[in-house]
Specification:
Helices cover 31% and strands 27% of the residues. With 95 residues, the chain is α+β, with helices and mostly antiparallel strands. 14% of the residues are buried. A hairpin with a 7-residue loop joins strand 1 (24-30) and strand 2 (38-44).
């Protein structure tokens, strides 16, 4: 489980990563194969539709790296979500 201190860091990092118009932001880490890790950042609008991310590489990397570092503190696959409307943070630990 994510500690209270780390929850604050997650919320701040997810807020920075959110695209304009996003109401929810989801960040996930999965392990599709041995020695392989995938990260996914998804922003959803008020209708629950994905918002396309056309940020340049350097800007995208600047918001992804802090999220990747936070993931290093957790074991296994992980999905976190921040609802920007009411600032509700949730975590789904996956196996």
């Amino acid at each position: 489980m994510i500690s209270m201190e780390d929850r604050k860091a997650w919320i701040a990092a997810l807020q920075r990563a959110a695209l304009p118009g996003a109401e929810k932001i989801i960040f996930a880490r999965t392990f599709p194969a041995k020695n392989e890790v995938n990260y996914r950042l998804t922003c959803l609008d008020e209708a629950g539709q994905k918002i396309g991310d056309n940020r340049d590489y350097d800007l995208l990397k600047a918001v992804i790296v802090p999220l990747e570092r936070l993931c290093e503190k957790e074991n296994g696959a992980l999905e976190v979500m921040l609802d920007l409307r009411n600032m509700t943070f949730s975590q789904a630990q996956q196996h």
